[in-house]
TrEMBL record, chain A:
<feature type="transmembrane region" description="Helical">
    <location>
        <begin position="31"/>
        <end position="51"/>
    </location>
</feature>
<feature type="transmembrane region" description="Helical">
    <location>
        <begin position="63"/>
        <end position="82"/>
    </location>
</feature>
<dbReference type="Pfam" id="PF20398">
    <property type="entry name" value="DUF6691"/>
</dbReference>
<feature type="transmembrane region" description="Helical">
    <location>
        <begin position="135"/>
        <end position="153"/>
    </location>
</feature>
<protein>
    <submittedName>
        <fullName>Uncharacterized protein</fullName>
    </submittedName>
</protein>
<keyword id="KW-1133">Transmembrane helix</keyword>
<dbReference type="InterPro" id="IPR046513">
    <property type="entry name" value="DUF6691"/>
</dbReference>
<keyword id="KW-0812">Transmembrane</keyword>
<feature type="transmembrane region" description="Helical">
    <location>
        <begin position="107"/>
        <end position="129"/>
    </location>
</feature>
UniProtKB/TrEMBL annotation, chain B:
<keyword id="KW-1133">Transmembrane helix</keyword>
<dbReference type="Pfam" id="PF04143">
    <property type="entry name" value="Sulf_transp"/>
</dbReference>
<comment type="similarity">
    <text>Belongs to the TsuA/YedE (TC 9.B.102) family.</text>
</comment>
<feature type="transmembrane region" description="Helical">
    <location>
        <begin position="128"/>
        <end position="146"/>
    </location>
</feature>
<dbReference type="InterPro" id="IPR007272">
    <property type="entry name" value="Sulf_transp_TsuA/YedE"/>
</dbReference>
<keyword id="KW-0472">Membrane</keyword>
<keyword id="KW-0812">Transmembrane</keyword>
<keyword id="KW-0997">Cell inner membrane</keyword>
<keyword id="KW-1003">Cell membrane</keyword>
Length: 161, 193
């Protein structure tokens, strides 16, 4: 059994949506609730803290490695269970995980993101939780991150990939 | 009830937070056949607000509204946790990190973020330019170039045993180590710490 399905989507996205039926209005509330829970965990485990990211990159604390590592282990077990037990989505569809193709961007872009991660102390998820936690100046970081995304989109065909 | 609030107000250990974050992966797959990934929200924001005829932003973003609703939830979650179950004590930091950061000019270790850096007063200064504008730009540009961030690659990608995501994650870490251990000191000196 293949763990990874071939990606047939035109748009290659890092958060692909394989559901065939559209969702609007109230159907989206479940993602809001999931997001709220996720945001609470980010704050309570102090993942949104610039200090914790500094500790991680200075190898002074196991905390962040424990968080990311145990999240991955939980994810691996969950996906294996979904595959082996052929669990379907609540809409009754077969669960698909599009394949991520290797590109040079994962090296160059990954490295560039790493530089930014250590400066800002945040990846895109915690950005939103930081703003919600009252660090409102992070709105500027968010706008700048959106600008960075836009500049990548503008020049994506000229960059090595 | 008060006891419960006190209990969850303490910082949560990694072995509670990590599995909860990991469970987002099957939750999204089962709720809506969706792969976990957060940096996509930045791309959707571009596609909605400033597509400018760029092919990279020309796609059916309406189908991806769930992702923006999810990050709105993360923002609300941040507010809820900070307002109702915030840790009353100062953050407990590894003493070596604290000493290193003190040497770099950080003086405030009371909150989750150092107010020496992350305050509105710094917005139109060299500090703001580096920590908000440059830092944010690198995060947005880098994650999109890499096709994902910590959630899309490190958690979702590695969880589904995809080696390109492992490569991306290794380079996230390399960039972070290099910035923290080599560039951050001189950069902070440059902006007036």
């Amino acid at each position: 059994m293949k763990v990874v399905e071939k990606n047939i989507q035109e748009v290659v996205c890092d958060a692909p949506n394989s559901q065939t039926t559209g969702e609007k209005g109230l159907a989206l509330v479940k993602y809001l609730i999931l997001g709220v829970l996720f945001g609470i965990v980010f704050v309570k485990a102090e993942i949104i803290s610039w200090f914790r990211i500094q500790e991680m990159f200075r190898l002074d604390s196991f905390h962040m490695y424990g968080v990311i590592g145990s999240a991955i282990v939980t994810g691996i077990i969950s996906i294996q269970l979904i595959k082996r037990l052929k669990i379907k989505s609540i809409a009754g569809e077969e669960i698909k995980i599009p394949k991520k193709e290797f590109r040079k961007g994962q090296i160059y872009g990954g490295f560039i993101f790493g530089l930014g991660w250590a400066i800002t102390g945040t990846c895109p998820g915690p950005l939103f939780a930081q703003i919600g936690s009252g660090f409102t100046v992070i709105i500027i970081t968010l706008l700048s991150a959106i600008a960075g995304t836009w500049v990548y989109g503008k020049f994506s065909d000229k960059l090595p990939n | 009830m008060n006891q419960f609030i006190d209990w969850i107000s303490q910082p949560w250990p990694w072995y509670v937070a990590g599995p909860m974050i990991g469970l987002t992966v099957p939750a999204l797959l089962i709720l809506g056949n969706k792969s976990f990934g957060i940096s996509s929200s930045l791309r959707h924001a571009c596609a909605i607000c400033i597509p400018a005829g760029i092919p990279f932003f020309n796609y059916n973003w309406r189908k991806e509204m769930w992702n923006l609703v999810f990050v709105l939830g993360v923002l609300i979650g941040g507010f809820v946790a900070t307002t109702f179950i915030s840790n009353p004590d100062e953050i407990v930091l590894a003493s070596k990190t604290q000493a290193d950061l003190t040497a770099l000019g950080i003086t405030d270790f009371s909150g989750l973020m150092p107010s020496d850096i992350f305050s509105w007063e710094n917005l139109f200064t060299a500090k703001g330019l580096v920590f908000f504008v440059l830092g944010g730009f690198l995060v947005g540009f880098g994650t999109r170039y890499a096709g994902g961030c910590t959630s899309g690659h490190a958690i979702m990608g590695i969880s589904s045993l995809q080696w390109p995501s492992l490569v991306a994650t290794i380079f996230f870490m390399l960039g972070g180590f290099l910035m923290t251990l080599v560039f951050l000191g001189p950069l902070m000196k440059l902006v007036g710490f």
